[in-house]
Structures are given as C-alpha cells and as structure tokens.
Amino acid sequence: MLLEVRDLHVEFRTRDGVAHAVNGVGCHVDAGRTLAVLGESGSGKSVTAQAVMGILDTPPGRITGGQILFQGRDLLTLKGEERRRVRGSAMAMIFQDALSALNPVMTVGDQLGEMFVVHRGMSKKAARAKAVGLMDRVRIPAAAQRARDYPHQFSGGMRQRVMIAMALALEPALVIADEPTTALDVTVQAQIMDLLAELRREYRMGLILITHDLGVVADVADRIAVMYAGRIVESAPVHDLYKAPAHPYTRGLLDSVPRLDQKGRELYAIKGLPPNLTRIPSGCSFHPRCPMARDMCRTEVPPLYEVSDERGSACHFWRECLHG
Ligand code: SF4
Ligand code: MG
C-alpha cells in the first residue's frame, strides 16, 4: 500500500471556537490507482490532503491524532529533515489555482528547470532540456518557445498543464490534485482529467483527486471516499457507488448530477447546508439534512459499517439505502 491514513483528526482554532475539520478519517491509495475524495466545501477533504502533504497552516490548524503511513512509514513520527525529504520528492500536489501556485516573476522553463537543479543536481542546460521535454509531455504546444513565457501568459488550461508538469518533475509516487479543474471550462476540464489519468498510468503513481464534482471522477477514479463534516461517510469502488449508493448523502450527490442516461429527469438538491464545524450535529452529523433520518440518528454516531470487503457506509440504515 502506498498511502494509508488512519483515524486522522485535525482541529482549527477559530473565533467561534475549535473547528473539528477532520474527525477520524481513514483511507488508502495503492500505487497506480486513483482515489477520488468527494464532498462539499468545508467537508474536510482539502484539510486531509494538506495534513498528508504537511502543508497545514499551523497554527491555527493542528493534527490531534492519527497516523499517515506513506510507503509503510508514519510521516507524523518522522523527524523534520527526513519528513521534508519524503514530501519534497516522493509526493507532489496540484492546486486549483495554478496562477497563485506558480512564481509570477520566473519563466515557466526556469521554474521547472529549477526542480532538476535543486533536487537532482543537474546543470542549468540539462535542466532546461528536461523542462522542455516535460512541457512537451503534458502537451503544451511549442514547448521550447513557451518555456520562455511567464505564468500569466498562459491560458488557464495550459497553466494547469504547467502545474501538472511541475508535480511530475521528480516522478513522485503520490500526487494529490485538489480541485485541479474547477476553474476551467468543461471541455478543458475533460482534457486535463484525461491527461492526469494517462500520466498516472504511465508513471504508476497513486493519485488522490479531490473534488466537489461527482461528474468529473466517474471515468478516472478507481475508488471514491465521500466526506461529510470531517468524516468519510461512504467508501467504495467507483462503479459500485454509482450503481447503488449505500449512504443517503451519496445518493443526494448522485441525484444532483445531470446524467446522460437519464435525460429529462428532474435534478435533486440536498436541502440545507453543511454544518458549522465548531458545532457538528449530534449522532449522525448528516441527520438535519437526511430524508431518511429517524430518532436514533440524532443520538447515535454511525460507525463505518462494512457493506462488503471493499465498501463501507456510515449510515445506520445503509441496507435500506442500498436497496431502496
Ligand atoms: Fe440519514 Fe440516519 Fe443514515 Fe445518518 S444514519 S445518513 S441520518 S439515515
Ligand atoms: Mg477545498
């Protein structure tokens, strides 16, 4: 197993009190596989990724429990230097906003080249050639020329390709992409997703794809973990989940995505809003919004029930949901 997160807890200090952003998350990713982490904003998906990458804003964010096992070693117990080395080259992150993630006053070729100079000890000339090769690999047309341009001179889609090239430069074992296509138009989104899927296969890397959009993950993910209020509420192979969700929240998300095979169907919207993380509802945190809620849901926190070997649901009534 490439990455295994066990019982992770992250808290934030806010003016309203302590926000429980991540409350016992467990998930895993194998080499060459894609895990999609799905949830509304504020569900804890980005915070989980930041904890794995070691880029939580501390303070106010703090890991208060759990393990992050990467290639068998717990990143949370590794000493500073070693931890930095693992995270510096074996893991990489792709952000939603490439423009603010890239250095605005450095050409794209120089930024990419610098990775090889700093981490691989290459000469400037060799690093430049590698940079151009990589830009070509992510299908940036006229790569040698474009290497001399600055980030703002690229379109949104091309800039996201530059980010992907940066992430892949050191051939990491794990890439985390946080809403990599949210800012792009639909056609470009699909191209970027296809590129990511292709590179993931070629490099045999593990990919964690964080998104609020169930529509973008169907074709590229192997597994999906659905997050709500800092917990994973359903975890399943992607096709099983699409066929029959085992959690009412997943069902709501699925029913709110337009589907080609169900033209003319009315789109559903989950009522209400995600909870304030300083005041997470008692029992099942989804109960105020759940169309299936009943009394016990208000008092008893559902564990992640085993639906099958490969599948879990944190709903007391997952059987009804699955077969309903
Ligand atoms: Fe709904 Fe109850 Fe299941 Fe929570 S435990 S998702 S409130 S039915
Ligand atoms: Mg986010």
Automatic annotation (TrEMBL):
<dbReference type="GO" id="GO:0016887">
    <property type="term" value="F:ATP hydrolysis activity"/>
</dbReference>
<dbReference type="GO" id="GO:0005524">
    <property type="term" value="F:ATP binding"/>
</dbReference>
<keyword id="KW-0067">ATP-binding</keyword>
<keyword id="KW-0472">Membrane</keyword>
<dbReference type="Pfam" id="PF00005">
    <property type="entry name" value="ABC_tran"/>
</dbReference>
<keyword id="KW-1003">Cell membrane</keyword>
<dbReference type="GO" id="GO:0015833">
    <property type="term" value="P:peptide transport"/>
</dbReference>
<dbReference type="InterPro" id="IPR017871">
    <property type="entry name" value="ABC_transporter-like_CS"/>
</dbReference>
<feature type="domain" description="ABC transporter">
    <location>
        <begin position="5"/>
        <end position="254"/>
    </location>
</feature>
<dbReference type="InterPro" id="IPR050388">
    <property type="entry name" value="ABC_Ni/Peptide_Import"/>
</dbReference>
<protein>
    <submittedName>
        <fullName>ABC transporter ATP-binding protein</fullName>
    </submittedName>
</protein>
<dbReference type="InterPro" id="IPR027417">
    <property type="entry name" value="P-loop_NTPase"/>
</dbReference>
<comment type="similarity">
    <text>Belongs to the ABC transporter superfamily.</text>
</comment>
<dbReference type="InterPro" id="IPR003439">
    <property type="entry name" value="ABC_transporter-like_ATP-bd"/>
</dbReference>
<dbReference type="InterPro" id="IPR013563">
    <property type="entry name" value="Oligopep_ABC_C"/>
</dbReference>
<dbReference type="Pfam" id="PF08352">
    <property type="entry name" value="oligo_HPY"/>
</dbReference>
<dbReference type="InterPro" id="IPR003593">
    <property type="entry name" value="AAA+_ATPase"/>
</dbReference>
<dbReference type="GO" id="GO:0005886">
    <property type="term" value="C:plasma membrane"/>
</dbReference>
<keyword id="KW-0813">Transport</keyword>
<keyword id="KW-0547">Nucleotide-binding</keyword>
